[in-house]
Design a protein that fits this description.
This protein is of the alpha+beta class and 239 residues long. It has a domain of 151 residues: Jelly Rolls. It is built from 4 helices and 12 strands, in the order ααβββββββββαβββα. The strands form 2 sheets. It has a 6-stranded antiparallel β-sheet with strand order 1-3-4-12-7-10, with no helix packed on it. Strands 2, 5, 6, 8, 9 and 11 form a 6-stranded antiparallel β-sheet that branches. A hairpin with a 2-residue loop joins β8 and β9.
């Protein structure tokens, strides 16, 4: 700057790696917007076909039952049935996302895992999100689903429940609920699995699974510093 001392705003931006001050102001305000934005943080899921839409011979009618240990076990792209069976649902009931979902108890309590081991960063936290409901047919009550993450030499597990009696869900209104769970990667690769703990043909329903790396939090101090720098720059431009 010519003819005087450098302003505080300019000092904030000097050597900060943002480039010119206008770009710096935009970057700061964008970061602030992300920090205070409500709802779920959008990211890139590291698993394939989390809503079970694609695969070999996907159901277009009510559903197909996929049995472990048979040629059908890997019909869902990116997934493998490893115990008993699951029902690959289409028109039988309302999906949470897209048109397909799963009943995790086909003829009995089933298990499905990611067919492809996905890459993770050791020591970093990951967020697992999925939608859960329950088969509204049969005897109403609590449906139980276990989530399993095998990462490095460690295995993490967590159970979730859905009470079809209390929720009053129906095939046309499944009343899906978003569930969240965190695990810390212990190795460079991880496998995610879901297992029904309801040993009937009317099990927990599953849809729209995602696994995302948890971003580092933007500290309040950093936000305030950025806002101060941006505000100072705007005042300087107007002055």
């Amino acid at each position: 700057m010519k003819g005087g001392n450098m302003s505080k705003a300019a000092k904030c931006f000097q050597g900060g790696g943002f480039g010119s001050p206008p770009l710096a102001a935009v970057a700061v305000l964008a970061a602030l917007a992300l920090a205070i934005a409500p709802g779920r943080a959008e990211g890139v899921s590291v698993i394939t076909n989390g809503s079970f839409e694609s695969g070999y011979n996907p159901p277009t009618g009510t559903f197909r039952t996929l049995q472990a240990g048979t040629a059908d076990a890997d019909d869902i792209d990116g997934w493998l049935v490893t115990a008993n069976s699951v029902d690959w649902i289409c028109t039988y009931w309302q999906a949470a996302h897209g048109v397909r979902s799963l009943d995790m108890s086909g003829t009995a309590a089933g298990t499905i895992v990611t067919a492809t081991i996905f890459s993770t960063i050791p020591g970093e936290p990951y967020l697992v999100e999925f939608y859960m409901s329950g088969n509204p047919d049969g005897t109403r009550g609590v449906k139980t689903l276990k989530v399993i993450a095998q990462t490095g030499s460690s295995t993490y597990e967590q159970t979730f429940t859905y009470d079809t009696l209390a929720k009053g869900n129906t095939r046309t209104d499944m009343k899906w609920e978003l569930q969240s769970w965190y695990f810390t990667a212990q190795g460079a690769t991880t496998t995610l699995g879901f297992a029904s703990l309801t040993s009937t043909a009317y099990g927990p329903a599953l849809d729209n699974v995602s696994v995302e790396l948890v971003p580092e939090p933007l500290t309040l101090a950093g936000v305030l510093l950025g806002v101060g720098c941006a505000a100072g720059y705007v005042r300087r431009r107007r002055g």
